[in-house]
Amino acid sequence: RLSEKHFLQAAGNAFYQTPELALLNAGRCIAKVPDYARAEQHLRQALRFAPDASEALFLLASIKYDMQEYMSARGFLQRYEAVASPNRSSLVLGYRIETALNNDDEVERYARQLESLYPGSTEILKNQETP
Predict the structure, then answer these.
(1) CA angle 90, 125, 78 (to 5 degrees)
(2) Distance between CA atoms of 27 and 25, rounded to whole angstroms?
(3) Can you tell me the distance from the alpha carbon of 131 to that of 68, in angstroms, rounded to the nearest whole number?
(4) Secondary structure string (H, E, C) spanning 66-84
(5) If DSSP codes are grouped into helix, strand and coil, which group holds residue 11?
(6) For residue range 84-121, what is the model confidence (pLDDT) as tens digits?
């Protein structure tokens, strides 16, 4: 929580040129506690400065997934996908979100992308618990 304090001080400094990064880091730290409500607050503030901040969008999608707010998680992941290239983490999260939402078409789409870009990933997913 000390690191959160330092990041927030930096973000509040008028001379600090990238407050969105300080807020992103504060959100990342607090998410590990986990204090999802405070982490979400910091990440949303970061998005006010930089609406296309892909890491903040991805972290919000992850937090919302962990909170079992799957529609909100999907929305943040879709925003992330609009500004960033897919990677293993984002595809796995998409797969998990759509599995939780019982959206078989999207589950299959994510599985195909994972298998195409990261062979063997779908076997790992099949062995993991889903909500």
Answers:
(1) 25
(2) 5
(3) 8
(4) HCCCHHHHHHHHHHHHHHC
(5) helix
(6) 999 999 999 999 999 999 999 999 999 999 999 998 77
CA dist 4 → 14, 57, 101 (Å):
18, 19, 33
- Sequence-distant (≥ 6) Cβ neighbours of residue 36 within 8 angstroms: 63, 66, 67
Q: Is the pTM of this model over 0.85?
A: no
Q: Is residue 35 a contact partner of residue 49, using CB atoms and an 8 Å limit?
A: no
Band the pLDDT of 33: cuts 50, 70, 90. confident
Token reading at 71: 């529609």
d(CA 21, CA 17) in angstroms, rounded, equals 9
Alpha helices in 13-103 (DSSP H): 19-31, 36-49, 54-66, 70-83, 88-100
pLDDT of 5-15, one tens digit each? 655 666 565 65
* Pairwise CA distance, residues 13 & 85, whole Å: 32
